[in-house]
From TrEMBL:
Gene3D superfamilies: Homeodomain-like
InterPro entries: HTH_AraC
Protein name per the record: HTH araC/xylS-type domain-containing protein
Species whose genome carries this gene: Sphingomonas hengshuiensis
Region Disordered, annotated ranges: 1-25
Domain HTH araC/xylS-type: 196-296
MF GO annotations: DNA-binding transcription factor activity; sequence-specific DNA binding
Bias (Basic and acidic residues) ranges: 1-15
Amino acid sequence: MGDRDGRRFPPDHPPRRMIASGTHMPGVDPAVFETDLNTALRYERPDPRVGDYITEYYVLDSAGPEVMGAIEWIMPGSANIRLFMDERPVNVTIGNRIYAPTPHVALYGPTSRALRVEAFGGVTIGMAVSALGWAQLIDQPANRFRDRIVPLADAVPAQLASALHKRLGASDMALEVKGILDAFFVDTLGEPHPDEPAIRIMSALIVDETVEDIAIIADRVGMSVPRLRQLSLRYFGFPPKRLMRRARFLRSLLRMYAAGDAADYSLISRGYFDVSHFLRDSEEFLGTTPRRFMAQQTPYLRQILRARTAVMGEPAQALHPIDAAI
């Protein structure tokens, strides 16, 4: 492993052809995936039998000297499974926790902070796990994994993690990924969890901009506020109030981000009392102000947000709608 400017870099790999960018989703303009970056990206909507549990699939690829040690950001959101298909390291910082490198087959727990990512190229295959998916796949409380990254085998049976990696490793890591993951999760997901009706209702309400009171959610779910908090920690990783605040902040930030104007506070959610209220949330969830964040070069993040919006309808996992009805 080489050393440049005091940083450790992986050995050079021979040139290879990057994956084919795009999606199987009908009606999405291919121009959404076009970029001047030396990167490629796929975004896929899962099979309807899977989509409420594993809400999206994505494949990221990059190559070339300009991506060695590139810094990018991931918005806070739901849990994710990520498989790094090359031997190149990916270093991630979440708050004061540093994972250098992350496991090659990893579970990213639900997050309340933006993730700083240092990458060195290669292919990443990921899938977002909703609270419904957590209930189905992971027999441990989500709050144990919040704002953490662990080997996937720490959370699911080792043979399941190994089978997923083996199937994807034998694929083209592009056009075949959606079919492989659809088949894998159709086979893996079982009968609905007993808590699924409550999780569904809560999932829908925490991203509803018109709902601002936890008591409303508790009433709709049909349980006390303390019991709702327990449910939320078990499957979502955070208390309901924090989830609602995360959604409110991201909805506001991403409106600014899309408009390209970090000073247009007319775009923030009506749930904020004033600008200082919004900026306090920015420090908590983003770690900086919107102005400073948007002053950074984040071209890959912009590409991902654009592609996700085109395929999934929302730019961020934390805003993904779930049907409250089964």
